[in-house]
Specification:
The complex is a heterodimer. Chain A is of the alpha/beta class. Chain A has helices at about 5, 50-55, 75-85, 100-110, 115-125, 145-155, 175-190, 200-205, 225-230, 235-245; strands at about 10-20, 25-35, 35-40, 65-70, 70, 85, 160-165, 190-195, 210-215, 215-220. Chain B is of the alpha/beta class. Classes of the chains: A alpha/beta, B alpha/beta. The interface of A and B includes residues 82, 88, 94 and 110 of A. Bound molecules: adenosine-5'-triphosphate and magnesium ion.
């Protein structure tokens, strides 16, 4: 069951998540190879966050199954959580702790060795441009600073698999580039990244493969290049329009 | 259960306590304010034990042929200028007055008091012919000053007034019995309230816990923690530990400040240790109540309000607020106050059945409440 042996970081089979009146995830099946940066694209309400929540063991699917790093998310959520890092769409942080303490808390909750935790925290905060502000209370941070803290909180334990749910929303260009740098760094060291974003060019540039979801269903999955060629499109936005007759998003 | 996780969560809770003014006030400033305010309002600062004069009752049971010696003793006591005499015909009235704080001590002159003095004066050098006798003495144990001052003064009056200066160096036929310690209602109202203050602070932990869980749930923080391998039992255990630290700190604060405000605790070191232990079990109860509160309602505002459902009965039925007994037995704080009153006010030994029983009750209720709290929270308290 070692992830290396299967080469699969994620394997989803017939996953369904139904709420009272909506089917958020509708019979989703796909897999992600270890070491891939996998872009999850789709309009608002497509089911991206719901999928990530199921894969990170936060949400019970209505039916279907999923394994993450070789472990069934429903049967062994603890094992899964030790191997993943989650940057949620809505950043959650402890306002009375400093940025640095927030990041260190996550490392401690992941049982990191103290020395490694200290080094990694400093390095990450520096990477996301929070070095100076890291000793201030996170409750006093701006929206962008909070998001960057949240990213550092997700990556502090250098997870085998990172779920980054719209990590660059609301970031200034410099911070966005820093985030891309972190994703490149993870990829360079063989980590797997699941990325959702509404910035089409970001998905194109970073993703090895892209899955396009609409109404909880996977409507396309391939490398950005192959998708564009197949649909004779200039970019992924056009691919989506060709597939659905709608835009992914009215405005970025 | 990983120590690193629990330690990190406890540290985070304590940082919150110290850094968030509302929490800091509730947990640590409030007990200080309460203790000082009650001490100032109901304490006996500057009265009673600090007076320069003490009232001493004399129960004159002397039936000797020669009554002059009892009279002389009375006058000798008055002449000290420090002791005021009140006369009694019998023991019971004096005892009752001591209990009510009307007098600070009383002396019982034995039946053969005068005969004893006469026997000495007739044969000062021949102890074999003395009629030996003993004076009874009872002092208000609430005041260390009275206990320290009154017996030597009486001894001195006996020696100087009755037997003359030279008698100081000699043995005498009359001795003073070891003083009986009597707890008198001369104690200030604050002395009776102080034991209740210990429980009073701890019951607000219900509110702290209810707020902690409901706020962190609202802010998505419980969810954020559940994205890590941290289990909900690790989260709950860290709440218990951090609140026990808070409870122990509150206990120390109340002890210190009530002492400063004039509370005369009779407790031994073991008694103080007991106080900490029983308060920790009360904290356990209140963490359980907090968990139940946070499970029943979703918003932090509602949780704060609902927490008073657990706080008010504990406050009115189980702390210093006087109540008619009976009904108090339904709240855990009652047993804490009961035990601490016995320990601190009456100087009861730790081995007394009532003290052990109180601890047992609070411990059992604490564990049960906690278990219920965990079950309810895990079923209804998550997002
Ligand atoms: N707790 C819930 N109860 C009911 N419906 C829900 C719940 N959570 C999500 N949904 C619905 O499920 C669908 C998918 O939501 P999801 O958050 O997964 O979308 P998304 O692709 O992440 O969208 P966005 O781009 O806006 O983040 C939406 O229709 C949403 O309204
Ligand atoms: Mg989303």
């Amino acid at each position: 069951m070692l992830p290396q042996s299967t080469g699969q970081a994620i394997s989803i089979k017939n996953l369904v998540k139904r709420y009272e009146d909506v089917t958020a995830v509708d019979d989703l099946s796909f897999s992600v190879e270890a070491g891939e940066v996998f872009g999850l694209l789709g309009p608002n309400g497509a089911g991206k966050s719901t999928t990530i929540n199921i894969l990170s063991g936060l949400l019970e699917p209505t039916s279907g199954s999923a394994t993450v790093m070789g472990f069934d998310v429903q049967k062994e959520p603890g094992k899964v959580k030790e191997r993943i890092g989650v940057c949620p769409q809505e950043p959650a942080f402890f306002p009375y702790l400093t940025g640095k303490e927030n990041v260190e808390l996550m490392g401690n909750l992941q049982d990191m060795p103290k020395e490694k935790l200290r080094e990694r925290t400093d390095w990450l905060l520096d990477q996301v441009g929070l070095g100076e502000a890291s000793s201030r209370r996170a409750g006093k941070y701006s929206g962008g600073m909070v998001r960057r803290t949240s990213l550092a909180m997700a990556l502090v334990h250098d997870p085998e698999l990172a779920f980054l749910d719209e990590p660059t929303v609301g970031l200034d260009p410099q911070s966005r580039r820093a985030t891309w740098g972190l994703i490149e760094d993870l990829k360079g060291r063989g980590r797997t990244v699941i990325l959702t974003t509404h910035y089409i060019e970001e998905a194109e540039a970073l993703s090895d493969r892209v899955g396009i979801i609409d109404h909880g269903r996977l409507i396309a999955l391939d490398t950005p290049q192959a998708l564009m060629e197949e649909h004779g499109a200039e970019n992924l936005e056009e691919v989506f329009i060709k597939l659905t007759g709608r835009k992914i998003r009215e405005e970025v | 259960m990983r120590a690193q996780r629990v330690t990190a969560l406890v540290t985070k809770e304590l940082k919150k306590l110290v850094r968030e003014p509302a929490n800091l006030f509730m947990a640590l400033i409030f007990p200080i304010v309460m203790t000082v305010a009650f001490g100032a309002a109901f304490g006996g600062l500057g009265s009673g034990s600090m007076d320069a004069t003490y009232t001493v009752g004399i129960v004159d049971l002397d039936a000797s042929a020669n009554p002059v010696w009892a009279e002389a003793f009375r006058e000798g006591i008055s002449d000290t200028g420090v002791l005021i005499v009140r006369e009694y015909g019998e023991n019971e009235t004096a005892h009752a007055d001591l209990l009510q704080g009307k007098i600070n001590a009383f002396v019982i002159l034995p039946e053969d008091f005068g005969d004893s003095v006469d026997s000495f004066l007739a044969h000062p050098a021949d102890p074999a012919l003395w009629i030996n006798s003993t004076l009874g003495l009872a002092v208000d144990q609430g005041s260390m000053i009275i206990g320290a001052v009154v017996p030597p003064l009486i001894q001195q009056v006996l020696a100087v007034t009755l037997f003359g200066e030279q008698a100081l160096t000699l043995a005498l036929p009359l001795s003073i019995a070891a003083p009986t310690q009597v707890t008198s209602s001369h104690l200030s109202q604050f002395d009776y309230m102080a034991p209740g203050l210990f429980a009073f602070s701890a019951i607000f932990i219900t509110m702290l816990v209810a707020q902690a869980f409901s706020t962190e749930r609202e802010q998505g923080l419980l969810r954020r923690i559940s994205m890590t391998p941290t289990s909900s039992s690790e989260v709950i255990v860290s709440q218990v530990i951090s609140n026990m630290i808070t409870g122990a700190t509150q206990t120390a604060i109340v002890y210190l400040f009530s002492g400063l405000m004039g509370f005369r605790s009779q407790a031994t070191v073991a008694g103080i240790a007991y106080a900490f232990v029983i308060i920790l079990f009360l904290v356990l109860c209140n963490v359980g109540f907090g968990l139940i509160t946070a499970s029943l309602v979703k918003s932090s505002g509602a949780a704060t309000g609902l927490s008073f459902l657990f706080i008010l009965p504990q406050m009115f039925l189980g702390t210093f607020v006087p109540n008619t007994g009976g009904i108090g037995r339904f709240v855990p704080s009652y047993y804490v106050t009961d035990a601490l009153t016995s320990l601190f006010l009456r100087g009861a030994p730790l081995s007394s059945p009532v003290i052990l029983m109180d601890l047992l009750v609070v411990a059992v209720v604490g564990v049960v409440t906690m278990v219920v709290g965990i079950v309810v929270f895990q079923r209804f308290g998550g997002d």
